[in-house]
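Supplementary Data S3. Sequence and structure tokens for construct A.
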Amino acid sequence: MTTAQDPFDREALPAGKADPALTADDVRHLARVAASLAEQVADLERRLDEARRLQTREGTAAVERDQEIHHLASRLRTLRRFGLDLSLGRIVADDGAVTYVGRLGLTDGSGERLLVDWRSPAAEPFFGATHGDPRGLRSRRRYRWTQGRISDFWDEVFDPDALAGQAALDDQSAFVASLGASRTERMRDVLGTLHADQDAVIRADAAGALVVDGGPGTGKTVVALHRAAYLLHADPRLGPGRGGVLVVGPHRPYLAYVADVLPSLGEDGVQTCTVRDLVPEGATAPPEADPEVARLKASADLVRAVGPAVALYEEPPTTAFDVDTPWGQVRLRAADWAEAFGAADPATPHNEARDDVWAALVEIVADRLDLDEPLARMRQVLERDTDLRDAFDRGWTIVTPEDLVADLFSVPAYLRRCAPHLSPEEVRLLQRAEPSAWTLSDLPLLDAARRRLGDPDASRRRRRAEAAAAAERASMDRVVDDLVAADDSDLMLMTMLKGDDLRTSLAGAGGTDATTVDPLAGPFAHVVVDEAQELTDAEWQLVLDRCPSGSLTIVGDRAQARQGFAESWTERLARVGLTRSRTATLTINYRTPAEVMAVAAPEIRAAVPDANVPTSIRSTGVPVAHGAPTDLERVLETWLAENPEGTACVIGPPAGLARHDRAHGRVRVLTPQTAKGLEFDLVVLVEPESLGPGIAGAVDRYVAMTRATARLVVLGRALPPGRSRASVEKEHENLG
């Protein structure tokens, strides 16, 4: 933590900003923040140590203790991580009131507010004020922190007369100035420089689906992640115990890139994953090799075939069946079987509803005999009737998800019956020699089958748990009887053990077997989907099944859809089942230099005329360079030598990358698909013509080019349009 006496790095501050008079109020206030932080860190350490030493075995108390430990540890990590740079800046209202805004709220020992949480309504003007709508502010100051000290700050004055001589004005706002900073392998911290258009999206209500539509560099991902943190703080429907938030990203490099964002905002309980992570088989599943098969499996109609497929394992016997019991014979008619099978709750998975159906069948037999015998006794008798069990098993069969989906791909008649919309040729295409050779396109079907069928071992585990509980009760009865018999005290205290409450306490929690819980199974209160334009209708079912509330933040760009995206977001989402959606469009490109967009925009517009190409607000003065693939090593070596900071990425087709693979700590080698959502100071696009024709090729080139935040070099085998060989060779000399 920096010293409270001087949080400003005077040597780093630009000329005109180092005057102590400009920062005296901030220095005093940040000294109070530093003192409060030290007190809170010490207090949190003490409370965390006490909570960890607290011994308890009671179920509820143990859960509450663990929750308290998690809360204290999370808060402590955030305070230790940032120290004074929790403070983002300050605002001055029209009435002169000064409010300091922070990553977290902070008060001193007397309860006075030192920092307001950035997600609170009081902080909203810090992000949302503009000269057109100052939100009741005189001024706003934003800090730039470097290694724990303020290396720069920017003042924006909305009432010049009220703050004459009290602000350091320059011609570059904090937001634009931050865009030229070098990139690292993790997404930069941008909380202090969120723009008004982005903040408005972040604070939008969580009800329904909100589409954040924007081209490259508009900050879609930043908005989505900050929105997740905001909603967790502001919306009680997303609070603890309500399901939490899931973030679904396009690929693993993306998840690594954004890994620090939510923890830096004080939220470390958000689950993040890719679509393939949602299903266990996704870990090893390759892409579908046949494009036509992939197209068929991309449809939600095929996912819906799982319902009829399961229903074929829930068919009650249609003939009468005689059941012999010690109390007489009962004839089960077809209507009795149908009644028992109809007792299953439609919301209960098939395998887990099996015990409910059996219980209904036992009750029908008991009612027919009109006996006073306990149902548990009748159940024991019927469990031993192998003929009855066999008939029941044939009607309500235990099925695994893997077997059900494999049968669809290996038994044509089964697939035809469950998916009548398929043509004979399409049924033939979907059959394969190895039914369980799962691909990425199979994941939505496997997930739907797993949800509809449930745990195939649920019934067995339940019976085992019931038997163990019965044995424990019998053992407890014997112990209690012995203790009561041996009690010769006047008060006969041991008779208290006959009470059910005390006996339950002595027995402990007991109960069912512990089962492994899939943290990605949901349900979640809110789901964020980034690069959503790439999801197929079938993959959307994976997402929606985990978000029954329909509260989603959907981030994407129709122009970056490799398979094309001709319809509107409203039409696409309505087709997959999201009828309540609204769209917020971002049109300002804060990342990509105008020089790069001048080359990238024609590329995508030629294939997607209505592409939402954003307008760049910054220019580097560095034109896009062109060269040949053989120039790659020279380009990288020169850039690395001249730029001690920042990251570079070589992007191209897999075959081209194999020829130019290069290992270096600051240089990545990616395909356009795995570069989506990332950004680099230098992008070298290798063999762009090899990315192919059509929409997919144009999208790949557009995505690759727009990853650059400072410089783009295109190394192709063909000449750029309108360029001569001599002009390109002249450019080669200056590639570095």
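Construct B, processed identically:
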Amino acid sequence: MGKAPRHGSWIAVVFGTSLVVSVVISSAAAQDHPRDRFANERWNAMGGNCFARSVCALGDLDGDGVRDWAVGVPKAWIDGQERGCVLFLSGRDQKVLRRIDGEIEKGWFGYSILRVGDLDGDRFEDLAVGVLDIIHSTKRRLTIVSGRDGRVLQRIPGRTTAITRIDDPERGPCLLLADHHAEFEPRFSLILMRSGEVVATRMAGETSAVIPVMDARGRLGGDVVTYLVAAAPGIHLTSATALEGGTPFIAAPGDRGDCQKPRHAIRADFDLDGTPDLAVSFPDCDNSAGRVVIYSGRTREPLLLLERYKDEKQKQHDSGEFGESMLVLGDINEDGVPDLCIGAPEDPIGSGELRAYSGKDGKLLWSEDGGLNSNLGVCMDLLDDLDGDGVPEILVGSVYKRFTGGFYANGTVQVFSGRKGELLTITFEQDFPELAEPKPPAKDGK
């Protein structure tokens, strides 16, 4: 885009074989802190293209020593149509490196983005880009794009509600897609990326949720978690290579329907017993207050219950959807146990909040409020350790809403310090006016 860096630059300095990345704030940026611009511009609506509904860390596409970003803009206007797009942005100065446009008007291309591993062998992780197509339901598709240059590798029709990657020893890289149909009947398709072969299969039992299991670095691990609502309700951990049924893993965290819909599942060894444990988020639980439960991988019993509020009266008025986004940060408080960052994008005033918790005892380590109507934490991903403090930084999407009708307005991409929760840099929807809804032509004489 040819503009000066916003609020500073990432400067990479090489000492021997080590790469140290620092944040350099220019004199102009020192006078215009990210929070100052945040306060001034968040209400300057430009049509509301749902900027940053999804975010994803990429590799270093431009060779400047800093990982770049993918940002979903599902209501972006492309050639006079609301088709959506995905932007590849420089992690150093947020310049547009590439843009991938949706094909279908009002298809919400870019509503979700997920890394699915290196499927084309170019040493860059590729991406699965989802849509939320309400009008053209028969034309829904999942698009697999190169994480290096954005070219389309494959378009897969159907309503994909969950996706995970497996490495088949005989077939090579594959994608396992879950597609919900009527009466909560899940169907799974095994997509062989190199040959295009599709092997259809099914999992036994009715489910209310199917989600992929990530590792501590946000990578697909080849397993899925389902919640079965049949005769023996509970969460089942299922290998992607053995799709029929699965062994019951843990019990549900509650007996109400809103506590039966897990959103994220991450494996990490929180109790240091040598067996990876499972952190599962339930943002719809307790009337959308949300909760996160960490279960022992060895005993399958709960280790920790994380909630924003313990008091039942506060919980009744909290609709924050705690657990809508979640990731493992690493060891923030240096007690030898990985810690968690959890997003709660909704609440009565829509401010959104990020919270970091100790993976050992559930102690709150830091929190960051997004400000009125910001929906901070609707999505997030891990970056590298940009400031050299030993903890990776966090790439966070924030999709603002108007007060009236809940329509999406301006969004931002923000980078926060993983250790302290401090805001490091912010990129606004207004920085990409080419994606805004075209203004109607002015009437004669006005």
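The chain has a mean pLDDT of 75. The two ends are 32 Å apart (CA to CA).
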